[in-house]
Design goal:
- The structure is a single chain.
- This protein is mainly alpha-helical and 97 residues long.
- It is built from two helices and two strands; from the N terminus they run H-E-E-H.
- Strands 1-2 form a two-stranded antiparallel sheet.
- The longest helix has 50 residues.
- It starts with a helix and ends in a 7-residue tail after the last helix.
Length: 97
């Protein structure tokens, strides 16, 4: 059910994007430091969103990798603790009474 909802959400987003692109199909002039160029507004917005998405991925990747490393260390510690616990459970109980 969740996958179907996500599919319809993506289709809706693509439809809104296509309508936005159709309504904003003008050509604009971009002035660079060394020149200028004429591009469609739709392509410029698409390029800006793509660059923003890539920059976001680069910024979050450091935190993500650190969390994955911490998770790996913690999983190793849990496995070691489980092994020690099973070894302690296997030892016979010594009664001094």
């Amino acid at each position: 059910m969740r996958a179907l909802f996500q599919f319809f959400l993506v289709i809706l987003f693509l439809g809104v994007t296509a309508a936005f692109a159709a309504l904003n199909d003008g050509i604009i002039t971009i002035n660079y430091f060394i020149g200028k160029d004429e591009v469609r507004l739709t392509y410029l917005l698409l390029a800006c969103f793509a660059i923003g998405g890539l920059m976001s991925l680069l910024l979050i990747s450091g935190s993500y990798l650190k969390l994955r490393l911490d998770l790996r260390k913690l999983n190793k510690a849990v496995a070691l603790n489980n092994q020690e616990l099973s070894n302690l459970r296997a030892l016979p109980v010594k009664d001094t009474y």
